[in-house]
Amino acid sequence: MAKVMTKSQVVAHLAEKSGLQKKATAAVLEDLVTLATKECKSNGQFVIPGLGKAVKAHRKARTGRNPQTGEPIKIPAKTVVKFRLAKAFKDAVVPPKK
After folding, report:
1. DSSP string, 22-82
2. Is the distance from CB of 59 to CB of 82 less than 8 angstroms?
3. Fewest CB within a 10 Å sphere: which of 3, 57, 81, 89?
C-alpha cells in the first residue's frame, strides 16, 4: 500500500499549486480545521464543497458483548461525528459499477 501524505507534504503541495508560502498555506489549513470544528459543534454539520460533510450524530444506547467473556454489557448513548463523502468525490475515487 502507498504511503499516506503527511501534513507537511500536503502543505508543500498546496503551497506549490497555489503559489502561496508554506507558512500561509499551513495557516489556511489550520483555520479550516478550526472552522470545521466550531461549525460542527454549534450547527451540527460542516460542508467542504466537492469533498463531503462532517455531521454530528447521536448513537442510541445499546447492548454489546464483552469479547473475552461473552457477557452482555450496556453501551451508553453518545454523540459522534461522521464524515459523509460527496457523491462526485466518491465516484471519482471508486467509479460506480455498471
Report:
1. HHHHHHHHHHHHHHHHHHHHHHSEEEETTTEEEEEEEEPPEEEE-TTT--EEEE--EEEEE
2. no
3. 3
Predicted local confidence at residue 96, as pLDDT: 85
pTM for the structure as a whole: 0.76
DSSP state of 93: H
Nearest one of 41, 53, 23 to 79, comparing CA atoms: 41
Whether the predicted pLDDT of 36 surpasses 90: yes
Rounded to 5°, the CA angle 96-98-53 comes to 20
Query: How far apart are alpha carbons 33 and 52 in whole angstroms?
Result: 14
As given in the structure block, the three cell numbers for residue 63 are 447492548
Cα distances from 28 to residues 14, 34, 39, 51, 88, in angstroms, run 10, 10, 16, 17, 24
Residue with cell 464524515: 83
